[in-house]
Design brief:
This protein is an all-alpha fold and about 110 residues long. The protein contains five helices and no strands. The protein is elongated, with a radius of gyration of 23 Å.
């Protein structure tokens, strides 16, 4: 093998490993961006529910305190309807699952063992 050709040969899995790492990093970044957007939409939905349930002051308080407001409205709707599973709960659980997958993908992409 000539000296020029010798340098073109990469270790086993080197190039494909690099491509997979870059792909997983891109997917992680996209997942984090989607988590941010979905979280905002869920928060606006909770604010909408608060406005319809209790008016402007409730909507303003809900908008000001994102995480705790969603927990409050999940509990309030649950106690009123008697059913845990409703639109806000389903959206929140799906959102938490998506964010967990994004975090796990980020950890796996950053690990040296890949």
């Amino acid at each position: 093998m000539s000296a020029a050709r010798k340098h073109d040969v990469q270790p086993r899995g080197g190039r494909s490993r690099k491509i997979l790492l870059e792909l997983s990093l891109a997917m992680t970044g996209t997942s984090i961006m989607v988590c941010s957007l979905v979280g905002g939409v869920i928060h606006l939905y909770a604010t909408f529910l608060a406005f319809h349930a209790s008016g402007y002051v409730s909507a303003l308080l809900t908008f000001a305190v994102p995480f705790f407001a969603e927990l409050y409205w999940i509990a309030a709707i649950w106690s009123e309807t008697g059913s845990f599973w409703h639109g806000l709960t389903v959206a929140s659980v799906a959102y938490l699952a998506l964010c967990a997958m994004a975090i796990i993908a980020g950890i796996l992409a950053a690990s040296p063992d890949g």
